[in-house]
Amino acid sequence: MEIVKISNIQNSQIFQQKDGFADIPVKGSFTPDPTDRAADPAGYPGKSVWAMLNREEDNTFVILPVRFPLRADGTFEGILPHVPAGGPYTLWCQLGGNDVHGDWERRGECRFHLGVGDLFLIAGQSNSAGYGKTPAYDPTDPDVHLFTNAMDWHIAAHPLNDATRSCHPINAEWAVSGTSPWIRFAATMRRVLGYPIGLLQVSKGDTCMTQWCPPDFPDPLAEKRGLTEQKGELWQLSLDVTAAAGGKIAGVLWYQGCNDADADEWTDIYAARFDRYVTGLREALGQPDLPFYTVQLNKSLSEDPADTAVLHRWATIKELQRNAPRRLPHVYVTASHDQPMSDRIHNNSAANAVIGERTAWLALETEYGRPYFGKAPDLTGAVLSRSTGKLRLTFRDVYGYLVELQHPRPDLQLETPAGVIPSPRILPAGDTLIVPFDPALTRELTAPVTVSYGVSPFGHPALPMDRITGIPALAFYRVPVTLED
Fold first, then answer.
1. What are φ and ψ of residue 39, in 5° steps?
2. 104 pLDDT exceeds 90?
3. How far apart (Å, rounded) are the C-alpha atoms in residues 79 and 75?
4. Disulfide: which of 172, 327, 393, 419 matches 433 by Cβ 3.0-4.6 Å?
5. What predicted TM-score, i.e. pTM, was given to this entire model?
6. Strand-strand pairing, 197-201 and 251-255
7. DSSP secondary structure, 220-258, as one string
8. How many Cβ atoms sit within 10 Å of the Cβ of residue 436?
């Protein structure tokens, strides 16, 4: 029997909306079946393909039927215009005349569970790909779909970086991964926005900025580390997968940085390379304001506490991540360093659910204008009174007030020309933290004096947080302190 075939749309596909609508391209072909006794021996001159889009919940039309004239070679192409955000929808088509579609014309293929919503690209290394290996409630959502490594669409489920039938094995994990933050992120976005969310997976564990930055960016360690052929490979994959999913996305979900703390040469250019990844991706996609939702590093429990070089690089990466929104518009960062682990470096499943939800709050507040409070408290100033010994730390993005859990050894310290002074305790005061040092240690201090907090790769059991959101302050490293008498 004659069948109208659709060549460019898959079941469960999500199309990127803009201003609440999407124009959906449809391509296909029609070839008469000569074994069909009812076939018109003269062919089908002047015929058209009619496409209909129905809501699956009640079989009502989403838009009126659209006619696509058949070309001489039996192909057709056109647009389903102004399809509203939502779903699931079913696309079905049939052969018909040019004036009106009929109910009993030659049938065509159908596509099921389609949606119009927002697409997010998952990029970065293992904690973005997801290595949570502990139980936690993080269910699938029928309106959250994944564009898999096999380049097909289905309902998203962990592990998102499954390599079965992968079309791009360069991001295949060497072992079965686990849970990531991004199903919870997508489910939260879907619940609030009221339309489907699609995830595009390109992240890979154990990767560095060498692989993510455009390949023309200098890399002092690529040849030494045997990464010459890998330069820019995941940058290109980001572009290829986005193009295959329609070419436009609503944002990038980024969690990366551990590997770039392995060598001074990489740490020193981390900010420049991350910034180039952001600006380059925006340029290539023609989306100059494309949002990037990023996560500041959590912990690395296998480091040697005596290895000051490693600790410095880890802290430096976290500080560069904190300042990314200051360097680039539409880049946002949330905290993770209060969350538990599955192993020495990977967040566990409960932590991933928290991080995903925090990131969704951040996106909803900043880019969608929704009444969610997702920003992490961020240091804006540090002033030390030498005479009283009181250090005053002021934060932005505090919605309620800061809470400090009075741990006897807070994760905060001053670095001075005379050495390091650990903080004895931290006293919260609204959007400010007061750190009282012994005046005998501060009275004669001279610049430069810096303050660091939350940058240890070993984590800390009690971190100051916002009472409204429960989100801890972003870690900061060697921030200059203003000295007052």
1. -65, 145
2. no
3. 14
4. 393
5. 0.95
6. unpaired
7. TTTTTTT-GGGTTHHHHHHHHHHHHTTS--SEEEEE--S
8. 15
